[in-house]
Amino acid sequence: MNKEADSNSSTVDIVSLSIPCKAQYVSIARLAMLGVASRLPFSFDEVEDLRLAVGEACTQAVEQASSKSSDKNISITCRLAESSLETIVSCEGLPMPIQSTSSDSEMSVGMGDYAGENLGMLLMEILVDQVEFKENQKGYEIRLTKRPALNAAPT
Fold it and tell me: What CATH number is attached to the domain comprising 77?
């Protein structure tokens, strides 16, 4: 675990995990999210939402890699701040699982952006507060941000 200071000069803890881009390892990412999310005052339901959203993000990478070489890895990086958990799921060498209609390489998505073609993307949008996709020369990343409810009891 690493630490860094954010713009508000509070400490942000960083937790990173790399797993093979194979379906049998997605459960490890979900299990890791249980431990990471329990560090913030999330309710049980919020932790489960995070686990499912990260699992869906990893599944997107696995599906993208299924027709490609299986030697890819999925990187999961969690940034724990006092008021939010930001999880970045990235995979190098794979195309972005959702195509942007704009020329911008970074986009936030809304429920109408999926046109019924990708249930996993819709689930991520429902389960967390913010979903962003960013494509770069190396691959893409899915950034999931979740904030604990104000009156949530810690798990």
Answer: 3.30.565.10
Q: What angle, rounded to 10 degrees, do the helices at 44-65 and 119-127 form?
A: 150
Q: Which two tokens stand for residue 142?
A: 């899915």
Specify which residues 146 forms β-bridges with. 85
For 95-103, the CB contacts below 8 A with 24+ separation are 95/64, 95/135, 95/139, 95/140, 96/133, 96/135, 96/140, 97/60, 97/61, 97/63, 97/64, 97/121, 97/140, 98/133, 100/133, 100/135
Rounded Cα–Cα distance for residues 30 and 9 (Å): 30
pLDDT in tens, 64-119: 777 666 688 999 999 999 889 999 999 887 666 655 444 444 444 444 454 445 78
Q: Which pair of structure tokens corresponds to residue 74?
A: 């999925």
Residue indicated by tokens 């949530």: 152
Domain count, the chain: 1
Query: Which parts of the chain fold into alpha helices (H)?
Result: 26-37, 44-65, 119-127
Report the SS3 class of residue 26: helix
Residue 74: domain span = 2-146
State pTM to two decimals. Answer: 0.77
